[in-house]
Amino acid sequence: MSxxxxxxxxxxxxFFVFLLVCQISLAHANGNLSGTVYGxxxxxxxxxxxxxxxxxETIENITADITDIEGLYHFPLLTDGTYYLTVTPPxxxxxxxxxxxxxxxxxxxxxxxxxxxGSAYKLSGYLxxxxxxxxxxxxxxxxxxxxxDKIGNSVYTDSHGYYEFSVSPGEYKFSINLSVNGWYEQxxxxxxxxxxxxDYGYINYFPQxxxxxxxxxxxxxxxxxxxxxxTVDGNGVAVPGVAxxxxxxxxxxxxxxxxxxxxxxxxxxYGENSNSSSDENGxxxxxxxxxxxxxxxxxPPAERSDLAVTTLEAVxxxxxxxQNFELVPSVKLSGYLxxxxxxxxxxxxxxxxxxxxx
Length: 358
Description:
Blueprint: H1 3-28, E1 31-39, E2 42-43, E3 48-52, E4 65-66, E5 72-78, E6 81-88, E7 101-105, E8 110-111, E9 114-116, E10 121-129, E11 139-144, E12 155-156, E13 162-167, E14 170-179, E15 183-185, E16 189-191, E17 200-204, E18 210-212, E19 216-217, E20 220-222, E21 224-232, E22 243-253, E23 259-266, E24 283-289, E25 296-299, E26 310-311, E27 321-322, E28 325-326
Parallel strand pairs: 1-8, 1-9, 10-19, 10-20, 21-27, 21-28
Antiparallel strand pairs: 1-2, 1-5, 3-4, 3-6, 6-7, 10-13, 11-12, 11-14, 14-17, 14-18, 15-16, 17-23, 21-24, 22-23, 22-25, 25-26
């Protein structure tokens, strides 16, 4: 056989081996691991991030990474499996090393942040509304002021509206989650608040720029007021079982250019704890955001076909407000659904929408 034949065969074999090696590499290098290390609320530069195997022993071919100025670390092309990650703070830091945390790589990239807490201080206070009433059984989460990253686990206010965090020195902002269901306890169920919540809502991020350099007492006053009254017909007679639906969102910036988001929602069938329907006497009461236009839609019960779905003008109040809401009488809009040839179209759903808003 000619030399050129062997040369060609050799090249093909080399190329085949190259492809095989690439396929084996790709089959086993299934994910990148990356994330940010924080010292309290701020990114921590110079921390040593070490990856251990499933037995928490050193992996010879994986070198520890050192976080950059933004606290970032990165381990590329890790094979599928279980790993443990530890963080050692830079020399002279007041932060302790982290315990080994389990990381599972399973065919996808993984982002895993680590928060080191140094000397812990107590950040505590009471959650109240704008009228000074306590807000109980309500979730509060704490976030780093600059990055917005959540710090640790959320806490819930107690029956007196008291909350407490254990944090390192830093600057923080709050997020408040509003829910008529409160918090859930395994085997017992929900602990709903006594406070007349809307069905669901949140206030992110408020308050902001909370400095912690020692144990800190900080009461939080939410811009909430109570809206109450009765749902009535055109004769002023109470109508029970009316749903007062809300879907409200406002985003704004404070005087320091910090963004705050407000969201409220009432559903018509949110459950037994809901405040969004008028009771057997036609009475209702729930909290809304103060000094914002809140639009409410009144939906009569199914048996009151004489009453129409009624959208109210914007409710904008700065303090508790009591007012009866009147449902308008219904009128019948009816006809037949046909195609272009005049044939009737049966068993077909039709919905109706406002012309302007859709």
